[in-house]
Structures are given as structure tokens and as C-alpha cells.
Write a structure and sequence with these properties.
Blueprint (H helix, E strand, L loop, with lengths): L4 H8 L18 H21 L4 H20 L1 H5 L2 H21 L7 H13 L5 H17 L4 H5 L2 E2 L2 E2 L6 H13 L3 H15 L8 H17 L2 H14 L7 H14 L5 H4 L11 H10 L7 H5 L3 E4 L11 E7 L4 E5 L4 H11 L4 E2 L2 E3 L3 E3 L7 E5 L5 H14 L9 E6 L5 E4 L18 E8 L5 E2 L2 E3 L4 E3 L6 E5 L13 E3 L2 E3 L2 E9 L24
Antiparallel strand pairs: 1-2, 3-4, 4-5, 5-16, 6-9, 7-8, 9-10, 10-19, 11-17, 12-16, 12-19, 13-18, 14-15, 14-17
Helix pairs in contact: 1-5, 2-3, 2-5, 2-6, 5-7, 9-10, 10-11, 11-12, 12-13
Length: 537
């Protein structure tokens, strides 16, 4: 929204709204509710504008801008909502900008109907929470860092050189930077504030006093961060426009010039460093990001050993046709089978899961199952006999792996949202894991991932130690063993879901336990686990 800076200041203090019943940032599945919410509240605002004329010009500009956004979305709502920039701007508008618009009518005598209607909508419609807003903020910076995206390009709607959606306004960039500041992510704050001021300077009202006042406020941000050069650039711009009225900035300019000349490095972004135990500062995590960016790949020699072939499976195939098997890695053995299920079946599985999706959780020995920032998705589980298509997945797994699906955990279907990811992890349980309360008293011998959608950009499955990247292909199955034949964990199979850059990622996870699988994968005379021990820690 292109609100004047004075009006927009109201937004900055209005960042908390009543809690929503759903969580929107962790899954693309629920974003359609927000678009419908905005359609309804937009109608309420239009009704109010029709009743009064005093603020009509300002409010109509806001309406037209959002409607233009909706026209873009109407061409392909799914594609629109799958774009992280569009999703951020949608959540940001409903989380902050609409409260500002409500504030502009509080002084109007005829505001009662509008405000009462909005109060009712907040009780009955879906609105994003602070957690959603923080989640989208983290997702934007996650995408920026993982894929090394330029902030200027990202804010313009460009993702890896491809134009996917509408550009962010200077206000969008400022609010994102301000939230990063409040979350103590100071290094990422700087480029978003810088881009905000760059975009503001391009506006027709950028030289008006109220805009210059806003720039002065942002100078304070940069100075506290220790970003002296951007603070100095803003001071010079303000003084160029109003040299006589802003004489108080001359002393600050001289001070900053001296700090830069002396090479002084202090301020929040220099003082706050990652803790030594922070996983995001480890070589392990940096390798994972490199694999997601395809900067690290298997060697040509290793790839020459791989084969593609037809595989009839362990028994008669369901459709009497051989599976199309592609070897992705020899040791550990990782394969992808193509066209296992059809597009119709993939979509039907999504429809089955959509009404019962909940925030995905991870297990911790100390806290049990909890939501975590390193896994942002929504999921649900089904027993294999709940639906014919789900039972068919079980039959495919039996034919492909030869393993006994009677000892498989319930099928988990998951949808990844804005920048949705799952940081590197093992599917097998650690040595200290307590199996006493488990349905199956053994470890996970194998994993199968059915990809239920294609993903336009990002969202691949990464194996950092191999290094291998598997891109989602609708209808295919990715399969590997988590354990050595000895039953020890194969630490080389540590894997991750790279952040979804553009699109919606749907998968169905199959985890098979070790019980009664010795007829398919018997132990050898000697333990075979030492080859992976170097990756344990």
C-alpha cells in the first residue's frame, strides 16, 4: 500500500490482533482463507467509502491497489498464493495495514457501521496472528540466505531471475526490516531498511517534510545497528532536500564521517554474534545450504556408476507394468521410482489431508512432540486401511521394498508453506530413544517419500553428506534405508527439505520399522556401521 509516511506510522504500533483459529505461514493450504477474508473486509471498506466522501480519495487508492492484486491472483490463485512475496504481502496487509485504515475513520461520525462490521469479521473470519507474521518474516530471510537472493530482486518479485509476483512497497520492506530488528536479526535488518529507503526515494512525495521525518527515524535504526554508511547516505539525502531546516543533522553527519574514517565497528550488528552451539553457524549447516543451491553435487565418477532400469518389484506389479527405477546413490543405496502414482491420485491425497492439517511437530526426549522453527509445515496421518488410495501406497511400498508394511507407521501427508523447510535431521531414532511407549518397539529401517506435487523452485530433498539433491516430481517415490544391515544408524542418510522458493510442496512420508524385516535385509556376520561413524557428530 502506498500510504504517506505520516499515515503509515500508525501501522508500526499496530502489530498485534486477536488470535486466529488457524496457522497460515506453515502451510500454503490455508492461505486461501486469508484471500477470502480480504475480499470480505474490502467490501466493508467500500460500503463505508460509499457512505462518506471526505476520505474517499485516499481510501479508494488503497482499494484499487488491493483489487489489482486480486485480479492478478484470480488468474491463478494457487500460483499466486504459492509465491512467498505475495504471501508475505497478503499477511502483512491483513495484519497491519487494515488496522491503519480503521484508524483513519475513527474520527468520522459515520464510522460506526464500518467499525462494528469489522469487529464482527474479526470474530468470524480468518485473520493472521503475530506468529504468522513472524513466521513469514523468518521465511523471507530463510529464502534470502539459503538461495543467496538479492534483496532488491526479491522485493521486486524476482526469484532467482524469474518474475513471479508483484513488487513489495517501501512500507512492506520497512515493516519486514523492523520485525527483523525486533527479533535481534540485525544483519538481515540492514538490507531491508536500505531497500525500503531506496524505494521511498523513488516516490513523488519523497521530498515532502513528513517523508524526510520518516527518513530521520530510519537514520537512528542504522546508527544503532552500526551501519554508519547507510545512516550517512540518508543524512546527505535529507540535507540535500532541506539544508536550512535540518541543520541539527550536520553534527551527526560529522560524527558518522569520523567513525567511518577511523574504521570504528560497533553497534548491534557487530556486537551480537552467533552462539558457538548455534547449529546455523556450523559447517554441517553451510554444506546443507550449498547442496540446496546446487553448488555441491556428486562427482562425475560417482554418477557414472548409477543406472536406470525397469524393476518388476518383489512380486507382481499392481498395474502389471514394471517400475521405472533410477539409482541416485550406490552406498548408501538411494533410489527414485518415477510415475508410481498418477496426478489424479496425488491430488486426491491432498484433498483427503487438507481439512485435517495441523502444524507439524518434532520429537524431543525432554519436551516430547512440539512445533519447531526448524520444521515449518503442516501435516496429518492416516492408517493405511482408511482409504483405497492410501492402501495402494502401502502395496506399492511392499512391491518396491519387499519390506513388511505391517510394521510401518501411519502414512504422514505434509504440506510446506511460505519458505517451508525441514532442516537436516535423521529419520532413525538416536541410541537413547525410549521405545517403551512406541507402537513398534524398533527403529526406522527405511523411509519412502511420495511426492504429491511438483515444485516450481526450491523444496528439494537434500542429503548434505553425499552430497545429493532430489527435486520433487509428482507421482514419484524416493526410497532409502536409514539403518545399516547391522541395525546401526547410517549417519550418511541425514537429510533435509530445502526451503520452498516458489510453489506448494506436498509429500506423503512412509516410515517402516525394523521388526520382522530380517527376511528381506538380513544382518551380515560383521557389523557394517563404521563407514558412517565419521558423520555421527
Amino acid at each position: 500500500m502506498n500510504m504517506m509516511p505520516g499515515i503509515y506510522l500508525l501501522v508500526l504500533a499496530a502489530l498485534q490482533i486477536p488470535a486466529s483459529k488457524a496457522e497460515f505461514f506453515s502451510s500454503t493450504s490455508g492461505l486461501g482463507q486469508l484471500l477470502r477474508t480480504e475480499v470480505i473486509v474490502l467490501k466493508e471498506l467500500q460500503t463505508y467509502v460509499n457512505e462518506i466522501r471526505e476520505h474517499a480519495d485516499l481510501l479508494q487508492r488503497e482499494i484499487n491497489e488491493i483489487r489489482a492484486e486480486h485480479l492478478t491472483a484470480a488468474k491463478s490463485i494457487e500460483s499466486y498464493l504459492n509465491n512467498p512475496v505475495n504471501a508475505f504481502r497478503l499477511i502483512k496487509r491483513l495484519h497491519t495495514d487494515w488496522e491503519t485504515l480503521e484508524g483513519t475513520v475513527e474520527s468520522e461520525h459515520s464510522r460506526t457501521n464500518f467499525l462494528e462490521a469489522m469487529a464482527g469479521h474479526r470474530q468470524n473470519l480468518s485473520f493472521p496472528t503475530m506468529e504468522d507474521f513472524v513466521g513469514t518474516t523468518l521465511a523471507m530471510t530463510r529464502l534470502q540466505q539459503t538461495y543467496k537472493l538479492d534483496v532488491a530482486e526479491l522485493s521486486s518479485g524476482m526469484l532467482n531471475g524469474v518474475k513471479y509476483g508483484s513488487a513489495m512497497s517501501w512500507q512492506d520492506c520497512f515493516v519486514l526490516g523492523q520485525h527483523l530488528y525486533s527479533m535481534n536479526d540485525f544483519n538481515n535488518t540492514v538490507p531491508w531498511l536500505e531497500q525500503s529507503m531506496r524505494l521511498l526515494a523513488q516516490q513523488s512525495y519523497s521530498d515532502e517534510p513528513v517523508s524526510l521525518d520518516f527518513m530521520e527515524a530510519v537514520i537512528g535504526y542504522h546508527e544503532s545497528l552500526g551501519d554508519y554508511q547507510n545512516a550517512l547516505n540518508l543524512i546527505n539525502h535529507v540535507l540535500d532536500v532541506e539544508p536550512e531546516q535540518r541543520l541539527h543533522l550536520l553534527e551527526k553527519r560529522a560524527h558518522l564521517e569520523q567513525l567511518i574514517s577511523d574504521g570504528v565497528k560497533r553497534g548491534l550488528m557487530h556486537e551480537v554474534a552467533r552462539r558457538p552451539e548455534d547449529y546455523h553457524a556450523t559447517q554441517d549447516y553451510l554444506i546443507y545450504q550449498q547442496v540446496c543451491r546446487e553448488e555441491l553435487m556428486p562427482t562425475a565418477a560417482a554418477q557414472r556408476e548409477l543406472r536406470c532400469r525397469y524393476f518388476s518389484g518383489h512380486g507382481r506389479s499392481l498395474n502389471y507394468l514394471a517400475y521405472k527405477l533410477e539409482e541416485l546413490h550406490r552406498d548408501p543405496y538411494i533410489i527414485q521410482l518415477h510415475e508410481v502414482i498418477g496426478a489424479h491420485e496425488s491430488v486426491q491425497l491432498q484433498h483427503l489431508a487438507r481439512p485435517v492439517l495441523q502444524r507439524s511437530e518434532v520429537y524431543s526426549p525432554t519436551n516430547g512432540s512440539t512445533a519447531a522453527t526448524f520444521r515449518t509445515s503442516q501435516g496429518t496421518v492416516f492408517e493405511y486401511d482408511e482409504h483405497p488410495i492410501i492402501e495402494k501406497l502401502s502395496q506399492h511400498m511392499t512391491l518396491i521394498s519387499g519390506l513388511d508394511m505391517g510394521f510401518a507407521e501411519p502414512l504422514q501427508i505434509a504440506n510446506y508453506g511460505i519458505g517451508g523447510h525441514y532442516e537436516p535431521h535423521m529419520d532413525s531414532f538416536p541410541e537413547s530413544f525410549d521405545y517403551s511407549l512406541q507402537r513398534f518397539k524398533t527403529n526406522r529401517i527405511a523411509t519412502g517419500i511420495f511426492y504429491l506435487s511438483n515444485v516450481e523452485a526450491g523444496g528439494a530433498t537434500a542429503f548434505p553428506f553425499l552430497p545429493l539433491l532430489v527435486k520433487p516430481e509428482q507421482g514419484s517415490l524416493l526410497f532409502w534405508y536409514n539403518l545399516h544391515r547391522s541395525g546401526d544408524a547410517d549417519y550418511r542418510t541425514k537429510h533435509a527439505g530445502c526451503p520452498v522458493l516458489q510453489g506448494s510442496k506436498w509429500i506423503a512420508n512412509v516410515w517402516i520399522r525394523l521388526s520382522h524385516q530380517d527376511h528381506v535385509r538380513p544382518c551380515q556376520l560383521q557389523r557394517d556401521h563404521e563407514v558412517s561413524l565419521q558423520y555421527k557428530d
